[in-house]
Amino acid sequence: MENCCRSCCPCLKRLWNWIWPDVRYPSVPNNNHLVIANPAHASEIRTVSGDIRVPSPQKRPVQLYAALFDFEARSDEELSVREGDKLSVIEKRGEYVLATKLTGSRQSGLIPANYVALLQDEFAKHKWYYGNINRSKAEKLLLASQNKDGAFLVRISESHSDEYTISARSEDKVFHFRIQRSVIGAYFVSDKLSFATLGELISYYQKNPRCLGVNLVDPCVQQRELFDMESWERPREEFQLVRRLGEGHFGEVWEAFWTKEKKKVAIKTLKQEDTKQDEFVKEVQALKSLHHPKLIQLLAMCSRGEPVYIVTELMSKGSLKSYLASPEGHLLTSAHLIYMGSQIADGMGYLEDRSIVHRDLAARNVLVGDHLVCKVADFGLARIIKDSVYKASRTTKIPVRWTAPEAALHQRFSVKSDVWSFGVLLFEMMSHGKMPYEGKSNKEVLDILSSGLRLSCPPRCPQNIYRIMLDCWAAEPSKRPSFHALQSQLDAIYAKIYSKTVEV
Fold it and tell me: Where's the SH2 domain (predicted)?
């Protein structure tokens, strides 16, 4: 089943209503008198005042790689592989990667980086892939007169955005089969049979229909491009702005109600004059194809008329910047913050694999939901904004305090400049919302960075977390870690805190 419900404790609800009577997100106040609970004690690791639970560490699907060539280890540090071997890459080390075999004895070691390649599912090339459509739309398409029994499509699961669903027509009915992910990132319908890619799974069941119980003959013949475009562009009248939640470099953010879908959403407004009109629709369409549990889901757009609406899912607790400054945010321990930071690195790793540069990663562009869920927002938005708007002007400033020197001085934005920004984001989190380089002008910040100085360790910040920040702030971009390595490090630290084997 794709739909699920969550129960809500009445006591927690009363406490929530007392803390957040109108769910407003205030600006960050002075935090000089902030008191942070010590998470070293077991009771405080698991809960803070009995309210904010620290979730248990979870196994995450790893990125799946394949060896491109045979490689014979020349020392105990290296790993022998054969062409086609499936691997999990832990981190990059210069011209090598540290990898683990996912078959056989699961050995680990170094392999030349150019000997491996990420196994990415290029979904868009498959005619059967329909992306983010719901169950009812899938059934409507498959039951259309153009399709016959055996027509099928693959769509993103409505309840698990990192999983998929096969929808297939058989005897004039539509059947749905959930495609799950294993801890190593493999795809499976039955846990007895898994596949490295989504394409391999579909190909197998096309050739072996008895295993699934229905025939997968031809992809749904509806023109996907027209269908996607129609569902993506929505009439402005479908949205009612409820209240303004804040504003950023690119426009205002509103809580709104989507009348047709009967649900609350968030809307970012932009002036048409501030967008690159020739690239806007194409770019937002590309962003719509990105799906990850730690990225804000884009739902719709209104590009005709003023202002432009970009419609996304609504997160209950607003921006991470506001949440850190809230009464509930003040209660967060290092354990909570590390858990949240790992989620952000997870979402950024997905963008990294697709060579998408955020360019404005900061606490203000991370949103928080229930159960400490964090999602990255505004990814890719910088690319559809006129450069004159993104760069310094009287009304908008480059976020120098979060921007890597090569990007701030020479406009060389890259995944590695995003890693720098992630280090500053960790500083924001561990200082509970303190402004980076507080009291310094942008010019003074650039002078500080050029001299080789870095932000100091926030009070009560674990030293191993500060070391991660310093790694993110390496002067040479190539020496900064990948987001996958950052997530792995944060997960390991969090697991140790949770199991109470170390004190923070």
Answer: 128-220
Nearest-angstrom CA–CA distance, 155 and 119: 19
261 and 167 together in one domain: no
For residues 298 and 323, membership in a common domain is answered with: no
d(CA 158, CA 61): 19
Same domain, 206 and 157: yes
Determine the Cα–Cα distance for residues 504 and 62; give it in Å rounded to an integer. Answer: 27
Neighbouring C-alpha atoms within 13 Å toward the C-beta of 438: 13
Question: What's the rounded Cα separation, in Å, for the pair 103 and 84?
Answer: 11
Q: What is the 3-state secondary structure (H, E, C) of 462-494?
A: CHHHHHHHHHHCCCCHHHCCCHHHHHHHHHHHH
Is 22 within a domain?
Answer: no
Rounded to the nearest integer, the mean pLDDT of the chain is 78
Residues with a known catalytic role: 360
247 and 373 part of one domain: no
Query: Do 114 and 197 fall within a single domain?
Result: no
Tell me the C-alpha distance between 447 and 400, whole Å: 11
Cβ atoms 416, 407 nearer than 8 A: no
Query: What pLDDT shows up at residue 137?
Result: 84
Domain that holds residue 78: 64-118
Residue 498 has pLDDT above 90, yes or no: no
Residue 268 in marked binding region: yes
DSSP-derived 3-state class of residue 267: strand
Closest C-alpha to 365, from 374, 378, 352: 378
pTM reported for the whole predicted model: 0.63
User: Do 183 and 285 reside in the same domain of the chain?
Assistant: no
> What was the pLDDT predicted at 104?
67
